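Collaboration report, partner site 2.

Our partner group contributed sequences for two proteins of shared interest, and the home lab folded both. The records are reproduced in the order in which they were received, starting with the first partner submission.
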Amino acid sequence: MKRKVIFDTDPGIDDTMAMLWAHASSQIELVGITTVFGNATIENATRNALYIKQRFGLTADVAVGADTPLVVAAGEPTTFVHGDNGLGDIEIPAGDYQGIDKRAAHDYIIDSLKAHPGEITLIAVGRLTNLALAVEKDPSIASLVKEVIIMGGAFGYNGHTGNVTPFAEANIIGDPHAADRVMTTDWPVTVVGLDVTHQTVMTSDYIDRLRMNSASYGEFIYQITRFYADFHKKVAGMDGFYVHDSSAIAYAIAPELFKVKEGAVRVITEGPAMGHTLLKEGDKRYPIDEWSGKPKQRVCVEVDDKGLLELYMATMTQRAAL
């Protein structure tokens, strides 16, 4: 049986690559896409989701989500990473992209979980505002979700501690209060953070092979990743780019590719360490312990990067040309 997925996203180049992987996979039924501010403005993120839906024949609903975090200031979209339009500044045909669900994203999530109890996985690859709003409005949905998979955070494994500050990853620091709310809710969360996403790199040769072999997606992915690859080359001297959001899809499809640790997770919400994600392993209680009594979640700490890249390539090249 296919895994029903609501994909919470701020597309975004790597978001789009992940979305297309979910669409191409025979193991995922992409039932909904909820948008959030982050890599692009909420208007551009939603337009991009609708454009991808139209261009590649997705059947998923699209619902507009939050354009501001719960508490902290919104900041500016990361156009220096994803381009002014969020898709590497490729030409997006002008048009009135239709098909937006009338419900706000968090209401769409609530209604969907109630309609399909125990069946839907939430995969969130942007700020966690929509998920936090949903569980705050209706805490009962925590018992209805199949799984929550998050791309975000950094716990120090494999030497990876942050990409916005020395200790904070972009999605988490973008709305730390929402992230802490999601991590401490009693529902099954798996965090796919920089600890593993920085271990997997799509090189220029890999993208060239994808371009050649994937009739459906290759040329499009090649075009949108030119801006993204250039950013990584300028900032990190890389040949290629890290595989962030697609790693969350990989976990949903093939969790055996990952090694995980379990424990309560908290997010620092203020001060110089704002956005820092901290995993407490074990059951020892301390005199001051804000982790005590919180649900144990799963944090990915190792990945079979070769296996992940092989799976992405295999999935994206087996789909018939559109």
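Second partner submission, folded after the first:
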Amino acid sequence: MYKYLLCWRYLKTRYIALASVISVMLGVATMIVVNSVMAGFSEKMRDRLHGVLADVIVESRDFDGFRNSDEVMARIEAVAGDEVVAMAPTMETIAMMKWTFNGHPITRPIQLIGIKPTERAKTGDFAEFLFDAKGKKIPPSFKVPQWVKLNNPAGQMLQEEEDPILRQALAERVQEQSAETGAIVGYAIAHAHINGKDFCLAPPGARIGLVFPQAGDRPKVTYDDALVVGYFKSGMSEYDSNHVYMPLEQLQRMRLLGDGEGNGAVNQVQIKVRDGVDLDALAMKIEGALEELKPGGYFMVSTWEKKQGPLLAAVAVEQSILNILLFFIIAVAGFGILAIFSMIVVEKTRDIGVLKALGASTAGVRGIFLGYGLALGMVGSGVGMVAGLMFVHYINEIEKGLSILTGRKVFDDAIYYFDKIPTLVQPSTVAWIVGGALFIAVAASVWPAQRAARLRPVQALRFE
């Protein structure tokens, strides 16, 4: 009983130990906050990546693709069976996009993707990322509504003009500025973020020019026009600043890869898989089946995680390095506990001698200091855990307060495309952080405890 009484007394009266408690508290709280934010960002990023990409992607090494897409999808379905939910043929190509804004031409390199929108929506979250100019969701379609065709200066004048002759001239002008093909443009391509606001550079109805290569031994450059009918906003700048979607059959026709019957060439097949299916195992089965169809590694099969492997691995490495660096804070607290306990042993040599003379055992004296270290660790890690979880819970309110205080946004949603800071508290991570702090606190008190336990009563009293 005396061990617990002495631990409690030291905890209340030895105010120098507060330095160690505060160090442990700050270390635990910081690690919980950083891990929660990093896990939130990672989870959000994985969701966005998985939404843009299908579960499994089949690609051809030939840029011009393959014309037997029906046979390829039939082979996939035969191998996978009911594990496959949906498939969508796709054609991707490099391209240049050009349009005019306020009389100034703008040219951007893009990734032009030909899809069947309803089929593509079934293989991922494509439909969830489609918005109009006001931020409202739109259905997955390339249809050009009449109001979009009239959303230009000539169209606005046409709606206000009553003279039949002028209306005829304006109608011809609208027809010249219009196009039959609709395109969905990446949000970051069509918008500029200036002074905290988004300015639309390519509003719905804007006519864009698309330049891309045709197929053949000596591919020539071809050109096509399209009207902006919506925006693709996934929250991942890699895609929002690069992707432009157009009808698959139109892209096949312009690249001289269509047959006029809707069976043109594609260079990708996006595959949606049922929940719980092992994607890596399924990808290997599909790759083996397609190797029999066309040997020589013509088809490349990868999962969405493998497709984005370097990016996901970079985030995991960054999180691991941050954990190692932040854990040094708790290690510093451990050295503080070691120094404080060593001072206490020297200062209380006479008291230790009296305790042992009154019958305290070696294990009892050792237990006093080990218990004191455990108490410091429990108090520091407990307060740090509560503080860290509270900070995570109110992190967006704290961010708003800091933004007002500093006069600039701490978390700029224009960079990350998140409306708030994403967080994810993982109980297992909190447990190992608290457990690690307790272990360091107890480990730091082992040597001083052992030193105090080895003191002999007579020698302790004599030298004191």
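Feedback sent to the partner group on the second submission included the following. The mean pLDDT is 79. The CA atoms of residues 75 and 389 lie 51 Å apart.
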